[in-house]
Amino acid sequence: MGMEQISQHEVIITGFGGQGIVLTGNILGKAATIHDGRHATMTQSYGPEARGGACSSQVIVSDEEIAFPYTDNPQLLICMSQEGYENNRGALVPGGIMVWDTDLVETGELDPSWIAYHVPATRFAEELGNKMMANIVMLGFVSAVSELVTTESLKTAMLGSVPPHTKEKNGTAFERGRDYGLAILKSLAKQEGS
Fold first, then answer.
1. d(Cα 1, Cα 5) in Å, to the nearest integer?
2. Is residue 136 within 8 Å of residue 162, measured between CB atoms?
3. Distances (CA, A) of 79 to 76, 169, 193
4. pLDDT score, position 51
5. pLDDT(49) > 70
6. Which of 182, 167, 110, 176 is nearest to 138 (CA)?
7. Contact predicate 35/143, CB 8 Å
8. Domain extents for the chain?
């Protein structure tokens, strides 16, 4: 690949049915296409029993048209369930970004080349009054630690994808995740600078 800029990014979001995993993938895709003017595809898969079963959403964001919509080598893996982590960790490329929900995933040994972040997304969502918003907290967090899509686009796409009466709460959940991500980046920069 050399020094050329990667124009295509593959993302896998994993969890269980009922966490809004597919919605999360849809929002990422909308942010890329409608608001950032790029190309995106989204595919989804469910385990044998939809609600509570394994579920994943695969998103590809690219500057060019996407010929094949399935992810082979994700550069970003977002895990919101133990099973999702275990089934997909082997696919993350060296140097990829691994993000997981602190309260739902026990990672054990990580590939030292990965850029690893964890966020208590479910706990934050519960503190905000609705654990169903954990996926939105996670999106806010990812907007801080990854440059996959612009934050503005992601937030706009999210607000356009949730029920109108939940917009304000989801906006708060997004900002909570984003602030947490920015705080982590700031403390990492301090450590590197010391």
1. 9
2. yes
3. 10, 23, 30
4. 60
5. no
6. 176
7. no
8. 9-193
